Structure prediction request, 848 residues.
Amino acid sequence: MATTTATAAIPAPAVAQPKTGLWSWITTVDHKRIGILYFWTSLSFFLIAGLEALLVRTQLIRPDNHFLSANWYNQLFTMHAVTMIFLALMPLMAAFFNYVVPLQIGARDVAFPRLNALSYWIYLFGGLFLTIPIFLGKMPDGGWFNYANLSEPAFSPGLNIDFYVLGLQILGLSSIISSINFIVTIINMRAPGMRLMRMAPFTWMTLITAVMMATAMAVLTIALTELMFDRFFGAAFFDVSRGGDPVLWQHLFWIFGHPEVYILILPIFGIISEVIPTFSRKPLFGYNVVIFSGILIGWLGWGVWSHHMFAVGLGPIADSFFAVSTMLIAIPTGIKIFNWLATLWGGSIRFTTAMMFATAFIATFTIGGISGVMHAAAPADLQQTDTYFVVAHIHYVFFGGTVMGLFAGIYYWFPKMFGRFLDERLGQAHFWLTFIGMNITFFPMHFLGLLGMPRRTFTYADGLGFDTMNLIATLGSYLIGLATLILAYNVVRSARAGKRAPANPWGAAMLEWAMPSPPPEYNFATIPVVRSRMPLWEGSNVLAEGIPHGREMEDTEEVTFAGAKLGKVSYPDDENIMSADDLGIHLPPPSVLPILLALALSLFFASFLGSHWLSLAAVICVALLVFAFAFEPGHSGH
Amino acid sequence: MDSAARAADPAHLDTSTGLDSRKMAFWTFIGSECLLFGSLIATYMAYKGASVTGPCPHTTLLWNGQQCPGILDIPLTSISTFDLLMSSLMMVLGLAAVQRGNQKRAAIWLGMTAFLGAIFLGFQSYEFTTFWHEGLTLQTNLFGTTFYTLTGFHGAHVFVGVIYMTVLAVLAWRGKLGPEKSLNVEIGGLYWHFVDVIWVVIFPLVYLIP
Prediction:
């Protein structure tokens, strides 16, 4: 029979080969690769921002120190905050948004893959633009809030503030584009059966965060534009001699700035709400309440901005309003904390590194939350404003909250992202050094603040009672530095040579664990149908066969660091992974336009430091590239 | 775009809400733009009457009791406002023509939209140069700063819209904007109407209310 020979000629399904090479990364529109790009870039900026903090702490190690000049000190504490917030923490969250959210909702990619790549490249170029002044010694030096009228050309004539204004404009663009993308992705790209109230808590918090970003960033854009007009075109927005009011900057900045605080913490609430149920082997206690209190936090977060401005003198009515609204936010936040505690209660707890960070987060974040309520009392806040008490508060919230939560997320999702575990022993060392170090560093600052030590002052006189606690704080910061080096080593080493991870190493319940680690480029071979909030914990067989317990993991080959093949992560289940073509799945083709458009947009803002002709050229480039973007074959267009 | 490529594009897959992803993204973008213009309008309102020197929008007294001559030409701007509102009508007719599959007619309406938008920009250029000759620049006083920034920002949006509508008109004229592409025109219409609505807010706040 002739037909049998014909069928034999049909090739067997090819094993998917991951695309490699620099060009494949530059042109990628795959949300997972973009997530990995965000991951490495933001970790690099995290190290830079941490180094800046260590320099600041070293300056404060003893009274009348001259390790740094006042000028350098101003630049470094400003850049520490700006780098941490805009270049390290928000993008590290974006790494998880990108990698995890499409998997959690059962999608093949985000709604607009090229816009997603565009957001990343704008972020990278904005970050590089903000790195230039480090080498010029002209870093922004007005604090991350950059108050007018200190930031006006009359008082800050140098390039320093120019870099701040233009750099943040670029980064704001990236945030707005990516938040629009994620709002649409989460609302519109869910798998069948994935109702809103079945979505994973992390996806929910991402959605709320994205809504806040899309709106708050627009306000920052205008605040920056007004300052930009003042600095570059001689406008009068914040010029007191022409009637301008510096308090307007404070309002606009904090209308952005306080939602920004929740932008930095809500995704962490999502991460914690994933990690704690997984390692307690219990569903999240009060899922509905956790989600709705997240929405409430996002909503109230818009009505509290003036608690940053109690010392301005807005009058008793405004102060009372913002004091009460700020205290109200403690209610939904407290609800979440009790939900996490109730999830732990009676659970079968496994203390992996991710879980240790998550439980420590509850404690340290609560300390930051309580001092936050103290600030909400306007009369007390007048005593605390501009002292180290505020520094202690924000570091308990950002380090004890955001950073600890992000560390939990890194240990939790690293096996999914790289197909390999982070080393748990190094992880334990990282955890304990971080946890002890952060408390040694930031707890004494409460006392320093109450003793009256002002923040943002480059040194202090001897004999004021500040010496010992500053020394302790600085030593603690070195512990954090050591811990972060361990993390960096662990991440780099484990990405190449860590223990291999199976599809669901933690026995977690959400959809992202249904695929091999790392997932194939098309994510799901067939789009799943979702029937419950915890798709992988459905049915009695899951409970019967048990979820891996203790610290044992699926045993795979032992790979040594020296013997590892550089830069290659092999797929543990690669014989099961077919290529997209064999499955008949069409993925959007790679595109070089995102990086080009990002470059042109960044050049447009950078060109304000150069000539108007450069700006014009950049605008023409942007226009042409937008055209090419809209009409590129294989992508959505006009 | 061939059918395989269309299927490859996630924006064309069936969505959870049934609403096209691009349209939803555009609504979200408009939400973001509302905060953008909201901040600018709030700045204008906060600084209303706070200028230290003239010229002023309406004839008022300055802080030192001096007469400050009003500079805004309300009849002229009423004409350009009417012109911009009529452009929204053209937009509606253009979209309807695309949905009916009448591409030549659609090209005319969309072209008219762009043309009326361009006339609005002409009015604005005339207004700006007149004010400049009367001594109002971006640097003169808070009114100049906030007025030029707010209306200039809006003008820049109209400018982008004029290019947008011109492209759509050319596509329709070439017969590349069939009824199956009407969503593209609808999204363009969302943008155009939004820019119009913003002007409907700006015009009374800046021009009509003294």
Q: What stands out?
A: Chain B is about 70% helix and 0% strand. Chain B has a mean pLDDT of 91. The first helix of chain B runs from residue 3 to 8.
